[in-house]
C-alpha cells in the first residue's frame, strides 16, 4: 500500500472544535437573548449555535436571499450591509454575531454604526474573519480544491476568494468594537490546542494524499489564519 493510500482515509481532526470561541460567546448570553447573525449564509453556523443554546431567539441577515432555507422560528432579512441600514429598531438585539463578513466589505462604517444602533446597552458582539497573516500563505493551485474562490471553499491565501476585499487584524477588530460602542473583552487568533498539536501531522498527510482541505486546516491553525474579538456595549 502506498503512503498516499495509507493516509487518505484520515479524517479532519476535531471538526467541531473550530466553533470553540463562537460557542464560548454564545454560552455567555443571558437566557432568551435576541441574537442577530449578520451574514448568516445558509444558516449552518446559526444552527450549530442554536443547538448549543435553543433558548435563544435568532435572526439571520445576508446579502443573498436564503429565506427559503430559513429554519423554523428564525427571522431573516436580505440586505447589503455596505449600502443598506439594518431593518430593525434601535436596541433590538442582546447580541450580534458577525463571522467572516467584514472582509467582504470595503466601507465598514455603515455596518458598524448599525451594529451600535441595534445592540442594546450591555449587549455583546462577536467579530471574526481572515487575519492579515492569510496574505502570506501560498495559493497552492497544484492542489485540487472543491470550490476555489467560494466562501465555503479551501482558501489558503486571502485572495484565493475573489470576494475578499481587506483582511482583518486583532487591533483592527478592537477598533471596530469601539466604533460599535463596545468595550473589547477578548481578542486574538482563532486557534485551539488540540488542532494546533495535530496540525503538523495533518499537513504532511494532506500534502502526500493531495487533500487540499487537510492542508488548509493545518495551515489555518499553524499561522492563525482567522482572528476574533468579542466585546460588550457600554451602558
Quick overview:
By secondary structure, this protein is α/β, with parallel strands linked by helices. Helix content is 30%, strand content 21%.
Task: List its salient traits.
single chain; 235 residues; alpha/beta; Rossmann fold; 7 strands; 21% strand; globular; disordered N terminus
Q: Give the integer mean of the pLDDT values.
A: 87
- Side by side, the strands of the main sheet go 3-2-1-4-5-7-6
Q: Strand share of the residues?
A: 15-25%
Helix content: 25-40%
CATH superfamily: Vaccinia Virus protein VP39
Order of helices and strands: HHEHEEEHEHEHHE
How many individual helices?
7
Find the CATH topology: Rossmann fold
Return the structural class: alpha/beta
For the biggest sheet, the summary is: 7 strands, mixed
**Net shape:** globular
